[in-house]
Specification:
The complex is a heterodimer of chains A (526) and B (130). With 526 residues, chain A is an alpha/beta fold. Chain A is 50% helix and 8% strand. Chain A is built from 20 helices and 9 strands. Chain B is mainly beta and 130 residues long. In chain B, β1 and β2 form a beta hairpin. The chains are: A alpha/beta (526), B mainly beta (130). The interface between A and B is large, with 65 and 40 residues.
Chain lengths: 526, 130
């Protein structure tokens, strides 16, 4: 008998990074690594579940910039080369590790990358989104959207139209890539501010997800805690993260990914091997990078590492899935007895954690669904399915919050990144002004105005502020922000002073090519 | 043009005062006062004294600070028991404070017990950790 529901949600997002002038660009690897280690392994497991007739339901956000990159011919061609390169390195590794303890792991990697290529070229027909669409259309995967470029909405809300454009463009992007309007949204960084629900509602959004305190401190306090959604004054449902289930998977102290059997993330031949041997597989500038060939397991808390054994690690994912299921059952029994309905445990995670950081993560997910299907005590469902079962929910105003460190906006507004907001707000105001003034723009002006809108949206990506804050890829994120600000105002200058820098325009239009459907009038008040 | 060489404006020649929420105890203000506005009040743009006051929804003054920069920003620490907040910018005209700009009004963030947050790691190493 079903005693409660589990709502797993994976947030898949990467900022839009495309550098057509470079054959190999360091930050483009974010996408290629995520495809290889996260997106394809997830889709492979979903296909396996389908083939084995195992019932499952999963909610995944595919953010507009990610969808645009996964649909970009130039990037996908580069991805094909990237994969081919890994297979070539895999073959080389077989020779190098022959007669060593690492040989079996080298064989595992060659097989892993070869199967990835087969899946990419076969089932996916070289289009990753084909896989998402396949399961979306079968109603086992609920794909939700996000901000158009993952803009941190509370800090953009100085100009309401800027927030509205983030949502409206996201909805259009979703329709373009998935042939239907999204029902749900993953708010960028789960960041909510008062009255955002009105904009979401007007864009057809029916639900969103917050961190636990966003719902627990709603007004009035929700009687079912995080185990049932609330409904906002503007009639949008809000689901919130269950701390317990998150903690079991991701606690830095005792979460599953830290098990000593699992693959160690840091030891990688990109750093470990002689430069001469590895130079063709790292950054062309000679910067050592992760190649994906990692031969050691976590082993323990010291630098001493033992050889990774994939079969032992895979067996461990079964144990962890069983443990996860066991604990969810206890949790459901505990909270269910106090509720007027069956509880829903909402478990939102970064999709990129499953496979990239936690290499065995996708297999863990596969095994959880198997456990759930076996016991039939918990049922995995999507937020929409839960709302269909329980259409009446308590009305409350969500608590403004985010899922970042300290729970508010500190990560995206601090000494490292505060300088960007002056520019982002000025750009948004200028864009709205131009959208009204040039509402009836001619074809040529429209081209320039649409690119201005792209530059604004790309500058607003919360990733740049985040990376400045964490001091990761700081130079790149600063340069990207400045580039979009510069491009935006140069385009505005071209428009105002009636000239056209063809070379400049061609270069940025090719590089910052996100949202080919974009109409700058999304910023107009007309 | 080199990717990292983009020159961007430091000022936009627009009078502006913006307040942004950070957490229940901290907000961020940035401003720009144009030379034209300063000259209108007979103030030398190179010798500016600006005063700021933070108010709550009931127009109670919460905290004040000052600056000698016509373009600048400031982190404001305050208590967390306010519903909404805004800032006013004043010019000191012969000992009298003249309000020349008022910021947007923000809904103040409310405190939650610290225990609600834990030691979770949320993000992949692709883009660093949250």
């Amino acid at each position: 008998m079903i005693k409660g529901y589990w709502i797993p949600i994976l947030h898949s997002h990467l900022p839009f990074v495309k550098h057509p002038r470079h054959e190999d660009f360091l930050e483009e690897r974010w996408l290629f690594e995520a495809i290889t280690e996260c997106y394809i392994p997830l889709l492979q497991r979903l296909k396996k579940l389908e083939d084995e007739n195992i019932e499952f339901a999963l909610t995944v956000s595919v953010t507009p910039p990610l969808a645009e990159m996964l649909d970009d011919e130039h990037l996908m061609q580069k991805y094909g080369n990237y994969l081919q390169n890994l297979i070539e390195l895999g073959k080389k590794e077989l020779t190098r590790t022959k007669n060593s303890d690492s040989y079996n792991v080298a064989k595992f990697y060659l097989d892993f990358f070869t199967r990835t290529k087969e899946f990419f070229e076969g089932f996916l027909d070289k289009k990753i989104l084909n896989g998402y669409r396949y399961f979306y259309d079968k109603n086992v995967l609920e794909i939700i959207t996000c901000g158009a470029t993952h803009g941190f909405l509370p800090l953009l809300s100085v100009n309401e139209q800027a927030v509205r454009a983030q949502i409206e463009v996201a909805v259009e992007s979703h329709k373009k890539h998935f042939n239907k309007a999204p029902k749900g949204i993953w708010l960028p960084e789960c960041a909510y501010y008062e009255s955002l629900d009105a904009i979401l509602k007007s864009c057809g959004i029916e639900f969103f997800i917050l961190d636990a305190h966003g719902l627990l401190y709603a007004t009035p306090a929700p009687k079912n805690g995080v185990f049932a959604p609330i409904i906002t004054p503007n009639k949008v449902a809000v689901f919130a993260r269950d701390n317990e289930s998150s903690k079991q998977v991701w606690s830095s102290k005792d979460g599953y990914p830290g098990d000593f059997c699992y693959r160690d993330f840091y030891r990688d031949i990109g750093y470990d091997l002689d430069f001469e041997y590895i130079k063709d597989y790292i950054n062309p500038d000679g910067i050592r990078i992760f190649t994906g060939f990692k031969y050691y397991k976590i082993t323990g808390n010291s630098d001493y590492k033992e050889i990774y054994d994939p079969s032992v690690a895979l067996q461990k994912t079964i144990e962890h899935a069983q443990n996860f299921h066991f604990n969810r059952e206890i949790e459901i029994n505990q909270v269910g007895s106090t509720m007027d309905r069956l509880p829903a445990i909402v478990s939102p995670y970064d999709a990129e954690l499953f496979g990239h950081w936690w290499f065995e993560g996708p297999e863990f997910l596969y095994n959880i669904f198997k456990e759930i299907d076996k016991h039939k005590v918990i049922k995995s469902i999507t937020p929409l399915q839960y709302l269909n079962i329980y259409p009446q929910n308590q009305e409350a105003v969500p608590h403004p919050s985010s899922w970042g460190d300290k729970g508010y906006f500190d990560v995206w507004l601090n000494n490292s990144n505060d300088w960007i907001y002056r520019h982002l707000h000025e750009m948004a105001d200028t864009m709205c002004d131009y959208a009204d003034r040039y509402f009836n723009a001619n074809e040529h002006q429209t081209k320039v105005l649409n690119q201005m809108a792209r530059e604004l949206l790309l500058a607003q990506s919360s990733d740049w502020a985040f990376l400045m804050s964490t001091q990761t890829a700081t130079e790149y994120s600063t340069a990207r922000t400045k580039e979009h600000i510069y491009n935006f105002f140069k385009l505005a200058d071209m428009l105002e002073n009636n000239y056209f820098d063809e070379e400049f325009f061609a270069a940025i239009a090719k590089k910052n090519s996100i949202f080919d459907f974009l109409d700058f009038r999304v910023y107009s008040n007309h | 043009m080199n990717f990292t060489d983009k020159l961007i404006a430091q000022r936009y020649n627009q009078d502006r005062l913006i307040l942004l929420p950070i957490n229940p105890n901290s907000s961020f203000a940035y401003w720009e006062i144009t030379d034209k506005t300063l000259e209108k009040f007979g103030i030398d743009p190179k010798n500016v004294q600006l005063s700021f006051k933070l108010f709550d929804a009931a127009n109670h003054e919460i905290v004040e600070f000052s600056s000698s920069f016509a373009t600048g920003d400031y982190y404001i620490n305050h208590e967390s028991d306010h519903k909404s907040l805004y800032v006013k910018l004043f010019l000191n005209l012969g000992g009298e404070l003249e309000c020349i700009l008022c910021s947007n009004i923000i809904a103040a963030l409310q405190s939650t017990p610290k225990s609600i947050r834990d030691d979770l790691i949320y993000t992949s190493a692709l883009l660093g950790e949250k």
